[in-house]
Write a structure and sequence with these properties.
Length: 169
């Protein structure tokens, strides 16, 4: 089973820290959104020997809202990939865009993507469907179940999310 690597010490990183890494550098947290990009990176490493580094940030302290991070992703959300193989280094935000970038750039044998345009189209449709339809409901369900207890003004929103989520069952 996949397990996000944990580092013994978390610390805020600054923009200069992203410059010292060679190759691909993933900035993320141990969330479902953050894990899916790391899973693909691990698979690419196994298949092709792709090397990458990872920095886990603490989203509970809004580290992703700091100036250095906002230069990489104006939306202030994880994950972000910095491809230091490009000159100048290229940052990719939004997990679906990152998955597509990784398979386009590093999956030369098409083990995780498709050469056939119809199959490629279907893959992209399902990625976008999940990002636009399923993932927001999952994220809201997690948020409301963890952070919006009884008496919270968000309770109404939690009930609406639960109803919408049941439509997918």
């Amino acid at each position: 089973m996949f397990e996000m690597r944990r580092y013994t010490q978390r610390r805020p990183i600054e923009s200069s820290d992203t410059d010292v890494h060679k190759g691909l550098h993933l900035i993320t947290e141990s969330t479902p959104n953050g894990k899916k990009v790391q899973i693909l990176l691990e698979e690419l490493k196994e298949a092709y020997g792709l090397e990458f580094t990872t920095t886990l940030i603490d989203i509970d302290t809004d580290e992703q809202k700091r100036e250095w991070f906002l230069r990489l992703n104006l939306n202030g959300r994880i994950p972000v990939i910095v491809d230091n193989n490009e000159s100048p280094p290229h940052s990719v935000m939004e997990s679906t865009a990152e998955l597509l970038y990784l398979v386009d750039r590093y999956d030369k044998g098409r083990l995780f993507s498709f050469a056939n345009p119809v199959e490629q189209s279907e893959m992209i449709q399902w990625l976008l469907f999940w990002q636009a339809s399923g993932q927001p409901y999952q994220s809201q369900t997690i948020h409301f179940s963890r952070g919006a207890g009884a008496g919270n003004s968000c309770k109404l929103g939690r009930d609406k999310v639960s109803c919408a989520w049941m439509e997918y069952d």
